[in-house]
Design a protein that fits this description.
14 strands, Rossmann fold, six-stranded parallel beta sheet, alpha/beta, about 450 residues, binds nicotinamide-adenine-dinucleotide, 2 domains
């Protein structure tokens, strides 16, 4: 059993801390947000993540997981690890990762350890779990080194690959665990930390420099964002030439060199990672005088694709959206999460409104988060209520509850029976058999 302090108790910090506790470690999760910690202490989980709530409650009850706001108090106990899991959002001015939270959390922890450990007996490893640009861990080492002697701490990178909506399973059954450090001690301790997972066959990729581990995370996300953007652009070409993007995905995805995942056309990538990580990689590459033009193109193409979705909706509704009532099903950037950060809905809905459309939306889970970003639309409590008098319904998120709706019955509520399915969850034949006018992405009408 190792002692772990997680700094930042958001999507990644809470899942990481809870799962480390579940595999037997002693974990305290710290966050500067007092409301979040108060809720967690009451057993109220502030994010939606399937399976997480039960696991938090179980590990708290079994005494392996606790929550705190004050790092100076936490540092009074010895911890083998301080995991940095704070946010690294995009800086507006240049797209670089904003490292303010990372550096503040690092320095607060280093000062707290110094004050608590006057004998100098602790030897913590500072681990970046946050997605940070190449070189950040070196800066973290310098920052910690201002407060702790160089032979009393180590720095490592352990990027996280979990997907929201599947985070607990992804953490417990990862494709791979990446750890990087030039400190052998840090690498060995991390191997021990993850042993319960690697023992059951989960591969561990150990890199001898933090830089490699840091870059692996950006390379992975940029590659996946490229794949999504590739199929999205092809979906628009399919519409022009009478091809079917779903069949095309199957036709290329069965090639194991390509693989069939991330080949579903949609309204554009979004969420808390791909948008900011692609921009941050572009910035790092340019700063290093080694531009990655393919990722620059992906960032531009994704923006263009979201705008193309708006135009598709406008064209479907006869070229004008003024006073058109549009129902939107789904707001989160994907199903099974309430995360609204950079969701395509945040580009598409304001653009529809700017054209004069009236929007009523429904999301089974993300409504509370969505209201922070989209305060000026109407929110409905059910699918049925969303559709009342609508001139069209747009499916923006592939929530399971939207996948087998009885449109024959529901369309009676609508002003016109039009579905614009930006997730391709229905087939043309299926929708038409229920009396709907059906428009999807990259698939010709039968
Ligand atoms: P988040 O915004 O959900 O959580 C960050 C938390 O850190 C917040 O609760 C905030 O209050 C807290 N915080 C900020 N400063 C702090 C400080 N000084 N001390 C203690 N707590 C502090 O962010 P997230 O989605 O969990 O992402 C965290 C990092 O993990 C990011 O770098 C992100 O890119 C990366 N990541 C995220 C995902 C994902 O799916 N969300 C997946 C992999 C990696």
């Amino acid at each position: 059993m190792l002692n772990v302090c997680i700094i930042g108790t958001g999507y990644v910090g809470l899942v990481t801390g809870t799962c480390f506790a579940e595999i037997g470690h002693d974990v305290v999760c710290v966050d500067t947000d007092p409301d979040k910690i108060a809720r967690l202490k009451k057993g109220d989980i502030p994010i939606y993540e399937p399976g997480l709530s039960d696991l938090v409650l179980k590990n708290v009850a079994e005494g392996r997981l606790s929550f705190a706001t004050d790092i100076s108090e936490v540092a009074r106990s010895t911890h083998d690890f301080y995991f940095l899991a704070v946010g690294t959002p995009s800086r507006d001015e240049d797209g670089a990762a904003d490292l303010t939270y990372v550096y503040r959390a690092t320095e607060d922890a280093a000062i707290a350890i110094k004050e608590a450990d006057s004998e100098g007996t602790q030897y913590p490893v500072f681990v970046t779990k946050s997605t940070v640009p190449v070189g950040t861990s070196k800066d973290i080492a310098k920052l910690v080194g201002k407060h702790l002697p160089p032979d009393r701490f180590a720095v490592a990178s352990n990027p996280e690959f979990l997907r929201e909506g599947n985070a607990v399973k992804d953490f417990m059954e990862p494709d791979r665990i990446v750890v990087g450090s030039k400190s052998e001690r840090a690498r060995t301790l991390l191997e021990v930390l993850y042993r319960p997972l690697t023992r059951s066959g989960r591969p561990l990729v150990v890199t001898s420099t933090v830089e490699t581990a840091e870059l692996i995370k950006y390379a992975a996300n940029a590659f996946l964002a490229t794949k999504v953007t590739f199929i999205n652009e092809l979906s628009r070409l399919c519409e022009k030439v009478g091809a079917n993007v779903q069949e095309l995905s199957l036709g290329i995805g069965l090639d194991p060199r390509i693989g069939n995942q991330f080949l579903n056309a949609g309204p554009g990538y979004g969420g808390s990672c791909f948008p900011k990580d692609t921009k941050a990689l572009v910035k790092t590459a340019n700063d290093s005088d080694s531009p990655i033009e393919i990722v620059e193109a992906v960032v531009r193409a994704n923006d263009r694709h979201k705008n193309a979705m708006v135009e598709k909706i406008r064209t479907t509704l006869g070229g004008t959206l003024a006073s058109k009532k549009i129902a939107v099903l789904g707001l989160a950037f994907k199903a099974n999460t309430d995360d609204m950060r950079d969701a395509p809905a945040l580009t598409i809905i304001p653009a529809l409104k700017a054209y004069g459309a009236e929007i009523t939306a429904f999301d089974p889970i993300a409504e509370e988060q969505a209201k922070k970003f989209l305060p000026e639309i109407r929110y409905a409590a059910t699918v049925e209520e969303t559709l009342v008098d609508a001139d069209a319904v747009i499916i923006l998120t592939e929530w399971r509850e939207f996948q087998a709706l009885n449109w024959q019955r529901l369309s009676e509520k609508m002003a016109a029976p039009v579905i614009i399915d930006l997730r391709n969850i229905y087939s043309d034949a299926q929708a038409k058999s229920m009396g709907m006018v059906y428009v999807s992405l990259g698939r010709p009408s039968d």
